[in-house]
Structures are given as structure tokens and as C-alpha cells.
């Protein structure tokens, strides 16, 4: 069979497993918060690779870090360590509550490690009966069998055989339900400080404080999934820093590598010691290329200039969205923190988030959904104000077409 050098969107349907439904264009180049497709059409990118491209596309610092490391060392596996991994771990420990770091390649892998560690910790400390993991309805923690079972969305787990046992779900931000579900058999409570796929719903500080207290009462670990909310997206390096509530385990991915696949599980020394040699691993985890890029991303993001800028850009986008909500009546509210934002569809427009996504793309704007009723924005943390203004203008044109 001859393989053509020319490929397009139709080739996806021909050669790729159909578990995705990509949009009808293929991007080929990016710079900052702009993308160009095969036909040369330009788009303002407010999707950010689903909250991944923290510094936009092809940021010079990332390109430099990758190029330098590519000429030195690519891979050594976990039978030895490497300098970029050690440097990145040092930076993460210095910047957070954590004492120890485990590197993997995706948010699902970081969460898989977190859930396994929580159960291992409980098993070693309290015995085999302390294994219950409590998570929230409508949560999302990944697509592996373990993480999809912990995630509170049955549509992602149904049809894959018996669900893993020992996992319970309670409504998000319902302290009474959580308290009723917890017992001495609970080993961990898993939360997203901001539910991302579930609709961009921030947890209140008081709720997080009460969850922390319940975990302490029942000798359970508190696990924060900050795969989407972390690495500066809220205007703090991690969302937990806004609440003052410190978890026992935290997971990070997405923006950590700014587009290069990497994830991390952060935890305390007392918890980490239960992952003894041979208990868990990842062939590519801590890859020198990924760690070199992520280290440079962290250097850029973890600065007052960028973090303060996130809060400023938040206000610009929210003000524009609220103005559009008043003008068109399509949105009932805007929620989220920093540059993880959700425009909630008004009652009469429920189920139309996908329509807006499609119309926006036709106008040269990339946005996301968080379910059928929320338009989600997760742009670069350093998006230019001119790109915000242009993106909001294109969204306004899309909304005009929607209501026409």
C-alpha cells in the first residue's frame, strides 16, 4: 500500500481508531495564541490544548530547552535518574507543600499513582480493610480503568466490565454526604479543587477546609487532582494555595509540560515512603526531554509577572463574557478562576455549548465545552491582550449568528 505524504482530516476516519471526533480542520503551525490550519486560515486559540499550552504555542524558552536537551540525552529509563528530572523535582518541592515527586506521562498516570499510593499507605498503616476511596459525582480523573472508576461520570466507565470495588461517590461540595460516606475504612478522599470536565465548578474554601478536617478525623489522605487547575492557571501556582488547604497528595499534568507530555504526583515524605522500590513505576516517567521542558515552563510560570497577569487577563475575559451575556441572553453566568473559565448556558440555550464551539471555529476562534451546557475557555497564561480582544470579537460574531 502506498502512503501519501499529503494527509488531511479525512485520513483520520480511514486510519485512526474512531474514539475521537476531531474538528474539520488540521492545524499545522502555532505561534503564541494563534494557530494556522492546512489552508492557511488563522485562529485565535482560547482552548489551549485543553488547558495544556500554558505558554501558548512554540514559546521560545520551551523551544530552547527542548533543543538543548535533544542534543544531550533523550532517554535512560528508570534504572537510573537524570539531571533534568532532579532539577524539576527540586523546583516542585521548593514551590509546594511536597517533599517527594513521582514523574509519569499523563494526568491519568499521575492519578493512577496517587490512588495506588493512597491504598498502599492505608494497607501498610492500618491493614487490608482500609481501602475505600471517596470521589465526587461528575468528576474526571483520567481514562485508565482505575481512574475512570474513581471519576464520577458513568458514561466513561460503562461497557468496560465490572467496575473496580471500594470506590464511592458523593455530590461535589456536599459535606454532609461526604461525612455520611466516610468511616474508618476510608483511605482517601479525591477532589478537583475546580471541577473541569464537570462544568468548571470551583470548590469553596470552606468546603475544602471541612473535607480536610474529615480526612484528619478518619485518618484518610486528601488527594487533590490539579491536572487541569494547576501550574498557574488560577493565578496561583496551584489552586490549593488560594484556599490554604494543604493536601497529602497532589497530581499535576497538562500545563506542567506546556504541551510536552509529562505529569507529576507530589506528596509528603511520610506518605511517599510507602512506595518502596518495585511497588510502582513508569518507563518514560522522568524523561529528560520532558523534564527539561517542564522545568523551563515552571521557571516562566512561577513568577509574579505571569501569575498576576493571569488575574488581570481573567478580568478582561470575564468582563467581555458578562457583557455578551447581557447582550444576547445566551449565558446565565460565568464561573471559574484565573484562566479556567466556564460560560454557563442560560436555560433556553441549554445543550447548545457545542453549537457555539462550532460557530466560533467558523469565525476563527477555538473554544471548548465542559459538558453540553458550558463553554469552556483555557487559553495561554500569557495570551496577549490583543488576542483576547480579537477572540472576544469573534465570539460575539458567533453568538450573533446563534441568536439570529
TrEMBL record:
EC number: 2.6.1.11
Reaction catalyzed: N(2)-acetyl-L-ornithine + 2-oxoglutarate = N-acetyl-L-glutamate 5-semialdehyde + L-glutamate
UniProt main location, coarse: cytoplasm
Signal peptide residues on this chain, from the entry's feature table: none
Pathway: Amino-acid biosynthesis; L-arginine biosynthesis; N(2)-acetyl-L-ornithine from L-glutamate: step 4/4
Keyword match Iron: no
InterPro entries per UniProt: Ac/SucOrn_transaminase_bac, AcOrn/SuccOrn_fam, Aminotrans_3, Aminotrans_3_PPA_site, Class-III_PLP-dep_AT, PyrdxlP-dep_Trfase, PyrdxlP-dep_Trfase_major, PyrdxlP-dep_Trfase_small
Cofactors required: pyridoxal 5'-phosphate
Class of the enzyme per the UniProt entry, highest EC level: transferase
One MF term in the entry's GO annotations: transaminase activity
Cofactor notes: Binds 1 pyridoxal phosphate per subunit.
Residue ranges the record marks as coiled coil: none
Keyword annotations: Amino-acid biosynthesis, Aminotransferase, Arginine biosynthesis, Cytoplasm, Pyridoxal phosphate, Transferase
Record keyword Transferase present: yes
Source species, domain of life: Bacteria
List of residues binding pyridoxal 5'-phosphate: 107-108, 140, 225-228, 283
Note in the entry: May also have succinyldiaminopimelate aminotransferase activity, thus carrying out the corresponding step in lysine biosynthesis.
Family designation: Belongs to the class-III pyridoxal-phosphate-dependent aminotransferase family. ArgD subfamily.
Matches recorded under HAMAP family: ArgD_aminotrans_3 (MF_01107)
Protein name per UniProt: Acetylornithine aminotransferase
Organism this protein belongs to: Pseudomonas neustonica
Amino acid at each position: 500500500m502506498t502512503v501519501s505524504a499529503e494527509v488531511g482530516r479525512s485520513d483520520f476516519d480511514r486510519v485512526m481508531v474512531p474514539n475521537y471526533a476531531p474538528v474539520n480542520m488540521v492545524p499545522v503551525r502555532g505561534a503564541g495564541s494563534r494557530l494556522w490550519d492546512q489552508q492557511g486560515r488563522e485562529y485565535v486559540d482560547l482552548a489551549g490544548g485543553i488547558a495544556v499550552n500554558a505558554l501558548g504555542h512554540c514559546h521560545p524558552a520551551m523551544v530552547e530547552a527542548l533543543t538543548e536537551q535533544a542534543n544531550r540525552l533523550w532517554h535512560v529509563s528508570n534504572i537510573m535518574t537524570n539531571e533534568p528530572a532532579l532539577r524539576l523535582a527540586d523546583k516542585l518541592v521548593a514551590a509546594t507543600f511536597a517533599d517527594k515527586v513521582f514523574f509519569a506521562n499523563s494526568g491519568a498516570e499521575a492519578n493512577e499513582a496517587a490512588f495506588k499510593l493512597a491504598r498502599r499507605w492505608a494497607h501498610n498503616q492500618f491493614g487490608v480493610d482500609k481501602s475505600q476511596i471517596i470521589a465526587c459525582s461528575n468528576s474526571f480523573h483520567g481514562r485508565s480503568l482505575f481512574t475512570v472508576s474513581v471519576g464520577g461520570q458513568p458514561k466513561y466507565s460503562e461497557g468496560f466490565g465490572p467496575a473496580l470495588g471500594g470506590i464511592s461517590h458523593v455530590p461535589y461540595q456536599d459535606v454532609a454526604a461526604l461525612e455520611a460516606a466516610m468511616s474508618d475504612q476510608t483511605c482517601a478522599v479525591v477532589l478537583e479543587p475546580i471541577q473541569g470536565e464537570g462544568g468548571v465548578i470551583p470548590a469553596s474554601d470552606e468546603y475544602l477546609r471541612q473535607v480536610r478536617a474529615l480526612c484528619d478525623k478518619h485518618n484518610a489522605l486528601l488527594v487533590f487532582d490539579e491536572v487541569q487547575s494547576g501550574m498557574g492557571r488560577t493565578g496561583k501556582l496551584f489552586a490549593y494555595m488560594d484556599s490554604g488547604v494543604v493536601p497529602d497528595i497532589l497530581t499535576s499534568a497538562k500545563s506542567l509540560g506546556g504541551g510536552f507530555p509529562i505529569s507529576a504526583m507530589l506528596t509528603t515524605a511520610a506518605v511517599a515512603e510507602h512506595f518502596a522500590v518495585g511497588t510502582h513505576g513508569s518507563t518514560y516517567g522522568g524523561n529528560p526531554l520532558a523534564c527539561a521542558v517542564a522545568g523551563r515552563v515552571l521557571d516562566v510560570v512561577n513568577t509574579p509577572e505571569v501569575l498576576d497577569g493571569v488575574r488581570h487577563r481573567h478580568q478582561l475575559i470575564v468582563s467581555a463574557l458578562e457583557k455578551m451575556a447581557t447582550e444576547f441572553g445566551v449565558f446565565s453566568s460565568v464561573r471559574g478562576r484565573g484562566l479556567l473559565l466556564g460560560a454557563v448556558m442560560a436555560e433556553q440555550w441549554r445543550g447548545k455549548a457545542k453549537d457555539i464551539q462550532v460557530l466560533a471555529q467558523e469565525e476563527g476562534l477555538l473554544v471548548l465545552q465542559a459538558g453540553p451546557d458550558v463553554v469552556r475557555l483555557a487559553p495561554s497564561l500569557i495570551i496577549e491582550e490583543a488576542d483576547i480582544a480579537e477572540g472576544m470579537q469573534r465570539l460575539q460574531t458567533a453568538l450573533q449568528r446563534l441568536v439570529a
